[in-house]
Write a structure and sequence with these properties.
Elements: H1 7-15, E1 56-57, E2 63-64, E3 75-78, H2 85-91, E4 97-100, E5 103-105, E6 109-111, E7 117-120, E8 126-129, E9 136-141, E10 146-156, E11 159-164, E12 167-179, E13 182-187, E14 190-200, E15 205-210, E16 217-225, E17 229-234, E18 240-243, E19 246-248, E20 252-257, E21 270-273, E22 276-278, H3 289-294, E23 299-302, E24 308-310, E25 313-317, E26 320-325, E27 327-329, H4 346-350, E28 361-363, E29 369-371, E30 374-378, E31 381-385, E32 398-400, E33 407-408, H5 412-415, H6 435-441
Parallel strand pairs: 3-4, 4-7, 5-8, 6-9, 7-10, 8-10, 9-11, 10-12, 11-13, 12-14, 13-15, 14-16, 15-17, 16-18, 16-19, 17-20, 18-21, 19-22, 20-23, 21-24, 22-25, 23-26, 24-29, 25-30, 26-31, 29-32, 31-33
Antiparallel strand pairs: 1-2, 27-28
Length: 494
């Protein structure tokens, strides 16, 4: 349906001014049952909510909203018609648009209705604040096609915007900062889009897409900074694009990884193109253990396979600019899939029996393409491939057309070209000793509690155009198409 905003909403918007690699056990899993709503009331400065009118029963026995019901025209105003966001979500029907006026809302919102659009009228003035007591600002549970737009979340013990078990999702023009787990989090969800968003102050990742294959998702035009990891994606991939975005001042930048502690392993077929990734050496962030271990790396594939890393600008890292390294899983839940099992979709893999690996697993990074990147000022190596015991000459990774100063091993583009034979010798010169990272992790700055970390305030962020007048836009046409060939290496910021 196409519902345009009534004139009264524009008046409301003018009349009201007010003031951010490993899933947590509580959030991850194949089936997530929503907890009872924990929504609190909006600020008492808001007008009282209108009383919801009773529905009228038709001759056919179906219930339709009465003419004065809050969603009679497919639009629900918060707080003008319904006082709380949760109340509006509960009153909404598929296809409805929930418009949230400026203000601070102390709520934890659970969404279980398909195809809703939840939109703030002003990204910087519609603030969901968890007070460091509530868990998720907006949690979408098994509700397909939900879009969350143009608002800010902060001070939640877990996540800002969280999609789990859905097909079709979108987070656009979201600011999420100071959260206890992730900023924007898509788990066990496919067909999605995260765009024009900002995240900071999360100990895990500012943005996370995990446990999906094929994911069929796009991350485009985001800024992720002052997190443990700018991006993390465990066991995700398959038409998964990370493009045109900025990852800076995190412990580590873009870190896809494999591991059997989540399903759908390995991480594979992620495309990372046209991003600016720099200065991910930040010691003052909250950080999970993996972020502390990965600190100082720009783009780091930790046991990922079949990824494309192309035309990114990467600079100023204490370790590697672009590194293909192993991920050691000490207590795995299953054996490692063979190469001929990499193309099995996630739904099928979930039905397969698990096998005891009989010990830890070493997930090496295999068959990745690193092409046309501009990498500089990396203190260990601009380009690197490493293992903790395997023969890296057999890993099938290739490097070509990059601009760089140093590699590990030395002359990496000659050793592993993308259009020629792999060298049989020379792999032992200038190797990267990733085992040292384990020892160094003990001496690196440890995590700072997310609610105590000295992370900068995000400042004003770009608003969604025409938020008050744009029609509802459910996540039923995602992700938008990306012309990868048109993306160039970004220019270095001033």
């Amino acid at each position: 349906m196409t519902t345009f905003r009534r004139v009264s909403v524009a008046l409301v918007a003018l009349g009201m001014v007010a003031v951010a690699a490993c899933s947590s056990d509580d959030d991850a899993g194949e089936a997530v049952v929503p907890a009872p709503p924990t929504a609190g009331a909006a600020d008492t400065t808001h007008p009282a909510a209108a009383t919801t009118a009773a529905g009228e029963t038709t001759a056919a026995g179906t219930t339709q909203p009465a003419a004065d019901a809050p969603n009679a025209d497919g639009v629900i105003d918060v707080p003008g018609e319904v006082e709380t966001i949760q109340g509006a979500v509960d009153a909404a029907a598929p296809g409805d648009l929930i418009l949230i006026a400026p203000g601070t809302y102390h709520e934890a919102v659970d969404v279980t209705t398909n195809e809703l659009t939840i939109r703030g009228l002003d990204r910087n003035e519609v603030i969901l604040d968890g007070g460091n007591e509530l868990d998720n600002a907006i949690r979408v549970v098994a509700a397909n096609g939900v879009a969350v737009e143009n608002l800010t979340t902060t001070n939640y013990t877990k996540n800002g915007v969280f999609f789990t078990g859905v097909v079709g999702y979108r987070a656009s023009y979201i600011t999420s900062y100071r959260t206890g787990d992730y900023g924007i989090y898509a788990f066990d969800s496919t067909v999605g889009q995260i765009d024009h968003s900002y995240t900071s102050g999360s100990p895990d990742a500012g943005v996370y897409i995990g446990q999906c294959f094929p994911c069929d998702a796009v991350i485009d035009q985001i800024v992720s900074e002052y997190n443990g990891l700018g991006y993390s994606g465990t066991n995700s991939g398959g038409n998964l694009l990370i493009v045109n975005s900025i990852f800076r001042n995190n412990r580590a930048g873009i870190v896809p990884n494999s591991g059997s502690y989540e399903l759908c392993y390995p991480e594979r077929d992620t495309t990372i193109v046209g991003n600016t990734v720099h200065s991910n050496n930040q010691p003052d962030t909250p950080a999970i253990d993996v972020a502390i271990l990965a600190m100082g790396n720009g783009i780091l594939s930790a046991g990922g396979v079949l990824n494309t890393i192309e035309r990114n600008l990467v600079f100023d890292h204490d370790k590697t600019g672009i590194g293909l390294v192993p991920f050691l899983e000490e207590d795995p839940n299953d054996d490692m899939p063979t190469e001929d099992e990499w193309d099995i979709d996630c739904a099928t893999q979930k039905q397969q029996p698990v096998a005891d690996p009989g010990g830890g697993l070493l997930w090496d990074s295999l068959q990745n393409r690193v092409v046309g990147n501009v990498v500089s000022d990396s203190r260990a190596a601009d380009l690197a491939v490493a293992s903790a015991g395997g023969d890296i000459s057999t890993f099938g990774n290739c490097f070509a057309g990059n601009t760089y100063a140093t590699t590990a091993p030395a002359e990496l583009e000659t050793l592993a070209p993308c259009d020629g034979a792999v060298a049989s010798t020379g792999w032992d010169v200038g190797v990267l000793n990733v085992a040292e990272w384990l020892a160094e992790a003990e001496t690196r700055p440890q995590s700072v509690p997310y609610d105590e970390a000295n992370t900068p305030e995000p400042g004003p962020q770009e608003n969604m155009p025409d938020a008050a007048t744009a029609p509802e836009h459910q996540a039923t046409d995602v992700p938008f198409e990306i012309d990868l060939d048109a993306i160039q290496v970004p220019s270095k910021p001033a």
